């Protein structure tokens, strides 16, 4: 099977398209993960990642998916019986609550209907009611509905009042939207390599505050591979990981982080905003309805409801077969009801226009009358700033 | 920093040198891990891995190091209070015992001095004494002293008598030495990508018997990322992994497994035997003493004691700096006392002779009189069969 011949435009919410420079970084020769070359590589990654996380605190890299990173963050902080505040507004935040329950914690869920997110006021009110709180576990951007929390900058102050930790799952958003870790006072930020960083999947990157570090280092947990104390210890002692790292993915991440810094983090975030705007404007102009309320819309995962007569699977098959454009369907109870576009990583004019063209023509194929020409011209104007 | 210019011969016990074909497989374009291309890729990997594990049972691939794979195997079988028989004869088998203790199991250790391995009779006697046993957790080849268990073929029969599971850590040996999983009746075999399979690090591959599958599927555990039931379920339902897989490493593993099957598993094992023989013979002829007793010597990790006046760090630095050959030192209490050569993966005539040449000349550099010419000529003869 020749994968090269099947190269497609991957517009799903991760893995995302990986730039050639990043792909080819993986072909560097294998090195000893206990030797100087690896020490330099890991040090470079940490220094660059600090700039992208906007932190001066600890950075560690786990050879696992983002789920592994989130599990590590939670299980190193949350103990049996601990109260944990969790805004629940999609599949991934629901999983966080499940996981907290699984390890014996007490998840206190503030739920919002799909397509919206719990407000800051609701979360604050619940917090003041519960009072004894170990941590806030917040999915910043829930990939499953494409919904974003818009009050993350305010949570650390609340957490401080209750001496609680803030753990943020930023897997599908970091480097694609604002998240200045130190300024916002977040204790643990988790992201993954294959989303807005545009590296291949397989690594979880964690920013860990001094406060969280202190707690984690004196803490006993029943996990080995996800014991963060070991990652911090090995990193501080000699820029190594406790267990054999996925070296080629470290090469790729190093290169991907260089690309982020070459572009500039703020410019990158701005680019994501503009491409998101082009998607939202154009698809609304085509008569489609965004699934998420305006105040909770994500710039990195864009979800739209299907018009009544369009069948999800057929629509996406048409896109992939005829245009080589791959987008995602809905998750769980949203299956068949929405489609989702990953607006992540290297997403630029070409990605947006190609995807829009494909979607607009497909809408016609399925019998919808759409002003393709005008919509695309408007999108081009919006995208001029990219 | 230009890693290309620093290409070295990596003769450590993993990661090992990765063939170009395997490295370049990683540059294939990113694919949707919930789409047909990934389904085909995973199916191919499983089919090929079954041939290498010599099993017709379940194969799953975790995006983690070998340690993660071993943790997954143990934590999905061993519960609080369970008796677990563990031969302890090096750092990695010691860690298995620690981990069993960490999760509340009761490790029953049969220890052997470093450089030897517990005998089958000792293990059997202890088993008959304890009687109530949940599992045997056996490190087939302990990488830290370079010591191998030579009775693994007999353990399943004992386990059967006590209705116990057999879990084998074969990280540093599978595909480099005999381990016919089904024939020997092992329940879970764990290996990693970066050892004898000669793929890059970052994946753990597990063979899981029907008996273990049945147990795992109805079992509740407090882990998410290492919950094997999910891996088996997703694999059976649609050839997916429950969490985003490290796609480039899957490409690489697929290619690496093809190379194993193109060579033929038995020929590959035979090649490892011959290159190991050349190492042992030649270094003994140079006056060095193998660290491990003859009956417990490994074909994949070869360890020798340092002569009195040779300092580990200086010796290995000399090898790396002058010859570009990287070997490993000792681990834990063996630090400074032994050096270890990884005889794994694509190891061939060139690797052995280059490494031997470098070592022999370095021995002279450090004042040892060595018959280089004769030793190398003998090694060449031994290696003719490769």
**How is the main sheet of chain A built?**
7 strands, mixed
Largest interface: A-B, 63 and 62 residues
What do we call the CATH homologous superfamily of the largest domain in chain A? Answer: Type I PLP-dependent aspartate aminotransferase-like (Major domain)
Task: Give unreliable regions of chain A as ranges.
Answer: 1-5
Strand order of the largest sheet of chain A: 2-10-9-8-5-3-4
Do you know the CATH topology of the largest domain in chain A?
Aspartate Aminotransferase, domain 2
The oligomeric status of these chains comes to: homodimer
- Average pLDDT taken over every residue of chain A: 96
Report the helical percentage of chain A: 40-55%
Radius of gyration of chain A: 21 Å
Number of domains of chain A: 2
CATH class category of the largest domain in chain A: Alpha Beta
The CATH architecture of the largest domain in chain A can be given as: 3-Layer(aba) Sandwich
